[in-house]
Design brief:
This protein has about 290 residues and is an alpha/beta fold. Helix content is about 30%, strand content about 25%. It folds into two domains: about 20-90 and about 175-255, Rossmann fold, CATH 3.40.50; about 105-175, no CATH class. It is globular and about 55 Å long.
């Protein structure tokens, strides 16, 4: 049983004083090998917002992220700060699920973060002074400068997630997608990751984070998206999204919810900590 405090709306909140629209997704649909996997999803995200994406196994959370970064055939539009869909794919930082990365790939922490500068460097020229400065600044922001020469496979789970956040910082992305970053990490690592997310908020970076932790989603995010079957079922502030009707539509008999004064009481009858059904069909990716 989890007691969830009622969360006020972020409209007008000092945490996101600049209401500038940073990402607009309109009528986005995607498919795997011709099979529809995402259906007409539309939403807007503003500067510095933190959006939690929640849903059961096979809901389409990873599919949504892959469509946004251009890894899947898709229809509809994605615009980052008014840029075209093709340009916007390169303006998003993406941290895939831990299991989707080949941690034995011979790359150091420095190498992985420098990959975030590929768009600025190009494919032929070596890194310039400003690229090296950007990488150092990113690693210092996530507290990993001292591990810059370490091979990524030697890092702890929490450190590995922070490396990819640093890569997004070096990339100077205005939107960061994190797919289950807290899976398999301890409480200390989770706290460290949230500290980094607080830094991103201060810098105006919008973060979309897929999670199965419904209690955490209620207390740590400005907005929530409920998704199932590749369809967005609800989107908005947590206290508007967490309703018995939305939970029943999204999770079926897995979740029951009661409201007791200013608290929500949520009971999970079945675990919802699996990956998208489509994930198993794709091989491990290298860290770039």
């Amino acid at each position: 049983m989890v007691h969830l405090p009622s969360i006020p709306s972020r409209n007008g909140s000092d945490n996101c004083a600049d209401p500038a629209l940073v990402m607009s997704v309109d009528d986005l649909s995607a498919s795997y090998n011709g099979a529809p996997a995402l259906h007409s999803v539309s939403f807007d995200v503003y500067r510095g917002e933190r959006v939690g994406i929640v849903g059961p196994n096979g809901a389409g959370k990873s599919t949504l992220f892959k469509a946004i970064v251009g890894l899947l055939p898709h229809h509809g539009s994605i615009s980052i700060q008014g840029a075209s869909c093709r340009q916007s794919h390169t303006m998003v930082g993406y941290v895939p699920q831990h299991e989707a990365i080949d941690w034995k790939f011979p790359a150091t922490v420095w190498d992985v973060v420098m990959m975030g500068r590929a768009r600025q460097i190009g494919y032929i020229l070596p890194p310039r002074k400003r690229d090296r400065h950007a990488v150092r600044a990113a690693l210092e922001r996530v507290g990993l400068w001292g591990l810059r020469r370490r091979q990524i496979g030697e890092l702890s789970g929490g450190q590995r997630r922070r490396v990819f956040v640093a890569r997004a910082l070096a990339q100077q992305a205005s939107v960061l997608l994190l797919d289950e970053p807290f899976s398999g990490v301890d409480a200390q690592a989770e706290t460290e990751i949230f500290d980094v997310l607080d830094v991103l908020r201060e810098e105006g970076v919008a973060v979309l984070l897929a999670t199965h932790n419904l209690a955490q989603a209620a207390t740590h995010y400005d907005k929530l998206m409920m998704i199932n079957g590749g369809r967005m079922l609800a989107f908005g502030p947590p206290q508007q999204v967490y309703t018995p009707a939305n939970l029943a539509t999204t999770f079926g008999d897995r979740i029951a919810l009661w409201q007791d004064g200013d608290q929500y009481i949520m009971i999970a009858d079945k675990p919802c900590h699996d990956h998208d059904d489509y994930q198993h069909a794709h091989s491990h990716a290298r860290p770039f």
